[in-house]
Amino acid sequence: MHVDGECLCGFVAFEAEVNPDMVFACHCTDCQIQSGTSFRTIVPVTPGTFKVEHGELRIFVKTAESGKLRSLAFCPECGTSIYGGPKPGEDGMLNLRVGALRQRDALRPRARLWTRSAQPWLDDFHKLPKVETQGSAPSPKRD
Fold first, then answer.
1. How far is residue 13's CA from residue 102's CA, in Å, rounded to a whole number?
2. Which end of the chain is more exposed for a tag (fewer CB within 10 A), N or C?
3. What range does the domain containing 83 cover?
4. Does residue 135 belong to any structural domain of this protein?
């Protein structure tokens, strides 16, 4: 499947090919920290198909739990996360951040990764009230 996307400010635009049956919700602590929530949805890129259409990505290299160096690519202007992959100059799988893709509604997670780090409240997430917009959000209840 052909996908394309851009960062929040529009500085970076990109495209790639992905398999929509290989979409995952990742609960690792890195994804929680970077996304600011309890998981991030990712999809591996078909090798050799990722292309930056305009703009330039900034790369942060992090040591993963495995000890391997991982490149985290993001927009240098607005900070939108674009992908995670091997350290610069190394071959390996790029995992796009589905939130930055225009086709995100068609990329439904097929499995959950790193569930040992998952937030326990996610089991009850579907029970929370649904509110269409922030303006109509209910007042927080105090325990």
1. 11
2. C
3. 2-118
4. no
Rg (CA), the chain: 16
Residue 4: which of 14, 75, 41, 45 has the closest Cα?
A: 14
What is the value of pTM for the model shown?
Answer: 0.85
Residue 18 to residue 5: CA distance in whole angstroms? 13
Report the alpha-carbon distance of residue 85 to residue 112 in Å, rounded: 18
Structure confidence by residue, pLDDT tens digits, 16-58:
999 999 999 999 888 888 888 889 999 999 999 999 999 999 9
CATH of the domain at 59: 2.170.150.70
Identify the pLDDT of residue 125.
84
Q: Is residue 131 a part of any domain in this protein? A: no
Calpha distance 31→135 (Å, rounded): 28
61 or 135, higher pLDDT: 61
